[in-house]
Known about the structure:
By secondary structure, the chain is mainly α.
Amino acid sequence: MHLALAMGEEVLPLSENERGSFFYQFTDFHAGTFSKDDLALLALCLREFCEICGKIESLTDSWPVLEQEPSAEDKIKLNALISKFL
């Protein structure tokens, strides 16, 4: 996904595959899946990781459903988030 974004390629085909949607891999780490008390126990770097995962998931979760290539603005946002993630 990161390479496709960097090269200006279409990303919709990468958003859905036989093992699940691109965004689905981030749902377990979405900060919204943790209670407030649980988040408070996490180290700052893990809370930041969860925040980035949540932003990626929120940005990309509708792409396979909409079945249209995401806007250039959304691609720029995703590329920035993935860069932070990596």
